[in-house]
Amino acid sequence: RDFTIAIDGPAASGKSSTARAVAQELGFGYIDSGSIYRCATLLALRNNIASDIDKHWPELIDLIGKTGVEIKIQPNSNRSLSVVAAKTGRLVVPSVQILLDGEDVSNDIRTPEVNRLVAKVASDGGVRSAVLNIQRSLAANADTKATETQGNGKDPHVIPGGVVMDGRDVGTTVFPNAELKIYLDASAMARAIRRWDEMNSQLKNKQTEEAARKQENKADTSVPVEYPSVEDIARELEQRDYADINRQHSPLRIAPDAVVIDNTNLTFEQQVYSITDLARE
Ligand code: CDP
Fold first, then answer.
1. CB of 12 closer than 6 A to ligand 1?
2. Pocket flag, ligand 1, residue 16 (CB < 6 Å)
3. 3-class SS string, 53-92
4. Where are the domains of the chain?
């Protein structure tokens, strides 16, 4: 691996979708480190050690070491994103599947329960070193290739293979020697509204699925989902940021050599291309 891009920042700052688009644009591997902490949290919940987690750190660390985590990026197109963007003006973000011992847990790791507990799980030093091992081994085995690129109207030239990892401490602790470090931020209100939008579009998809099921006269066994208000989400993000900034082990910090991008007033395309431009420099 020749090139590492670390993207850190607070909750719901857009790291994950930005990192995925940057990875696809550059032909790099992608690792979502937050999803590994979320998997660790899911393991605690499933093994009934979440409610008194302070007594069960060794057990959880053992579970993390024994469980396989895979992150699969699914490109929406074989063409480079720039080609797609030139046609539609919009970048297509590839979707990502998170597998825990082969089981797809992509939805299970984004429940309100996991949201509430994940910062606590991520505060433990032993958990962090177990996750660090996974992060480094996923990066070492990431599917990367050198690509000749003409993206974003620049002169074509070869960029080496590499990996994009997003999280809280990637530029400070996981890969302190990363070639490019980005700290992605946005106003608290912008982040809460985005997360709320995401949840609402998920709800809409669910409702469409349910309507289709009813039309087919199939029994509707689904439980109606209560989605939180934008104020609830703002509070949850604020609590998580507070815990992430104030924890003892590798807290959320801006690396001294990071480029800070505040995307409150940027389009998605602008922020992605500002990062790929920096990588190509
Ligand atoms: O997507 P969102 O910004 O809500 O969160 P995430 O990236 O999935 O991360 C979930 C949680 O994992 C964070 O709130 C942190 O507590 C923890 N985390 C961490 O401690 N270090 C990382 N490198 C990544 C995530």
1. yes
2. yes
3. HHHCHHHHHHHHHHCCEEEEEECCCCCCHHHHHHHHCCCC
4. 3-280
